Amino acid sequence: MTAFQPADLKLLGDLIQERFGLMFDGVRQEILASRLQPRMRELRLDSARAYYEYLRFHPQRDAEFERLPALVTNNETYFFRETRQFEILIDHVFPEHRRVAPARPLRLLSAGCSSGEEPYSLAITLQNAGLTQVGNAWEIEACDLNPERIARAREGLYDETSLRACDPETRGRYFTAEDRRFRLKDRYRGGLRFFEANLLAPHFTLARRYDVILCRNLLIYLCDSAFESVIGRFAHSLVPGGYLLLGHSESLFDRATEFEPVVLGGSVIYRKPPAR
Q1: What confidence score (pLDDT) does residue 41 get?
Q2: What pLDDT does 51 receive?
Q3: b vs e for 36-69, b when ≥16 Cβ sit within 10 Å of the residue's Cβ?
Q4: Fewest beta carbons within 10 Å, which of 15, 130, 137, 193?
Q5: Average pLDDT for residues 156-164, to the nearest whole number?
């Protein structure tokens, strides 16, 4: 395989941005090259230009475009990551919901959930706070564009890297060791629904309304137009007064959106204005 040429990587990056809203400019070109190299070997393509031409003209280009987002996106995640936001849900959002809508569960969506570490961590935290799913207190749904990651989430079997924030006591409480892997115990897997969804697809719409959407460490990879499109879809899919939780490196402060920043528990999250 020949070296990746910057001009060819820009062609690829522009095509990916046009199709999916994912941005690979500047230093991120190197990331794009490293993620595409194994696939190019499988296809026996010797250059980035050849892969670009495959995506543009090959009879199997539609199938390749379907798998491309999973090839180039970052699936880095682990259990109990940034749990301060979970505490905000328990201490502030849950009590508010019980006052406003006591007859129905709190509906939460983990958007870009990868292999399920985030929604499972959230379910564990809710159960530990005495908010059991059996009492219809909450419903968690989780989506990702990668079907292999969704399958792994449904299986609930994880490698050591997914548990790197867990001490031995935590591992023993929530997981069962299987060879060199760890299976999440059944009691923490109930009440969650996983589904495939490409939030960047041109005409995609979430079918339900949610009280809370978590989308953490995804928006940093999007170009401005894709960023605005996804935020708009989240606004549409939240109930009036619903909350959007982003990653620590993501912000809406410099953007015109429906959301208003609110400080809860010393942290900033975003709220869709309540209905008048």
Answers
A1: 93
A2: 94
A3: beebbeeeebeebbebbebbeeeeeeeeeeeebb
A4: 130
A5: 96
Q: Which two tokens stand for residue 86?
A: 């979970």
Domain that holds residue 11: 6-72
Once rounded to an integer, what is the mean pLDDT over residues 96-107?
92
The CA-based angle 160-162-167, given to 5 degrees, is 70
- pLDDT at residue 27, rounded to an integer: 78
Stated pTM of the model: 0.88
Per DSSP bridges, beta strands 106-111 and 192-196 are unpaired
Residues 67, 104: one domain?
no
Does residue 276 lie in a domain region?
no
Q: Are residues 151 and 244 in the same domain?
A: yes
- Of 101-110, 205-214, 216-225, the range with the lowest mean pLDDT is 216-225
Q: Please indicate, yes or no, if residue 200 is contained in any of the structural domains.
A: yes
Q: Residues 159, 252: one domain?
A: yes
Residue where the block lists tokens 């194994």: 38
Share the mean pLDDT of the chain.
91
SS (H, E, C) the chain: CCCCCHHHHHHHHHHHHHHHCECCCCCHHHHHHHHHHHHHHHHCCCCHHHHHHHHHHCCCHHHHHHHHHHHHCCCCCCCCCCCHHHHHHHHHHHHHHHHHCCCCCEEEEEECCCCCHHHHHHHHHHHHCCCCCCCCCEEEEEEECCHHHHHHHHHCEECHHHHCCCCHHHHHHHEEEECCEEEECHHHCCCEEEEECCCCCCCCCCCCCEEEEEECCCHHHECHHHHHHHHHHHHHHEEEEEEEEECCCCCCCCCCCCCEEEEECCEEEEECCCCC
77 domain residue, yes or no: no
| pLDDT computed for residue 70 by the predictor | 78
Backbone torsions φ then ψ of 48, nearest 5 degrees:
-65, -35
